Amino acid sequence: ALLARHRVGLTDSLTGGMRFEMSEDIASGGPMVNIRLPIGELELATAASRRGATYGGAASARYSYVSVGLNLTAAARYVSPHYATLGSVETASSPRWDAGLSAAIPVGRRGSLTLRHELARRQDASGGSTTSMLGSMRVNGRSYLTITGTNDWRDDWHGFQLSLGLGVVLGPRTGATFG
What we know:
The chain is an all-beta fold. The protein has strands spanning 2-11, 14-22, 26-36, 41-51, 54-66, 71-79, 95-107, 111-122, 127-140, 143-154, 158-171, 174-178.
């Protein structure tokens, strides 16, 4: 397989790039651009693919704003029924489109709170939405606590998940998480 990705800063506010992947039966790739706006950054990307005699396409847009007191992200993606990448497997549950919003704020000097909402439709027209809230707090210089609550709404079921975790830094490149 061949994988290639290249990005180049054209100006202080504009970065362009390309992505390409190829194997014996798949070719996929396309252009991308990042644009620095007066407030935030916009990323746009498109791609086309061929798997055997089947062609597909995809497009995405992502806006992000990062500051000391607030991080915001909005993203949307469309994938045609036969779009392929080297790591993808075409199934009825493959995404057709998805979109999401997230916001994160600091809480005190040691914590953060993130709220995320995502919508999705699959190739078989099933779909749903997910809303989650993540809280993180540094306990000391080497450990942190996280708690996540997620509410899932699907076409045929609804569920809630709650998780609690403890992360510990063991060394410069090593860590452990208990959940």
